[in-house]
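Hi all, long-time lurker, first post. I run a small reading group and we've been trying to get comfortable going from sequence to structure in the token notation. Rather than ask abstract questions, I figured I'd post a concrete chain and ask someone more experienced to write out its structure so we can walk through it together at our next meeting. Sequence below, copied exactly:
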Amino acid sequence: MAGLVDYEYDFFDDYQADVLARLPSIEQLVRLDDEVANKVTMPRYEGPVDPIEWQFLEEYYSGLFADFATDRIQGIVDTEPIEKNRYRFHSFRKDVASLNKKLPTQRSARTGVIPKPAETVLLKRLRELGFDPSALCISHIGSGGGLYLLELFVTAAQQEVLSDTRLLTALLNQADELGSMSRDAAMSRLHRPVLMVSLWDNQEKNG
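-- Answer (accepted) --
Happy to help. Here is the structure in token form:
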């Protein structure tokens, strides 16, 4: 019938068996990270499976992510923050994508990552809440890389345990709040001056 889309795979199970099962877990994660990013940022994106099956792709991706995140910090710090928030990563990505659309940025098929303006707004807000933005410094992965948001999530979970703060919870909640605000409000947050470092005692006294 004219107008029907011929998807590469009608069922996610077939896609998983033919494509994903041949790849190491990290490569599966990278591949699905791209697919989910494209779907979030390009509503007309078709993807490799029938839309009816898309929820199974997302569930599989969420499971891979949770395993990846837990493995990254297991044996180093308590994994409870990951376990408690394992299903919030997808919403986090959507919130960042929504914020991206309201700020100046280069738009491409990979806008599911966090460009500098969106990262700046998010870190400024965390600083206003009393958190140290340097705790989320991730220099070994470029912010345009497909795994940057994953690493940001994991780093926040590590810091939540190490510093006994609710950094991951704050990161997720503020991304949700910022993603819901208007373009004018997002631009105002971007340009609002915020002191991003803590003053030494003598600087506070002399200030």
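A couple of things your group might point at:
The two ends are 73 Å apart (CA to CA).
The longest helix spans residues 54-73.
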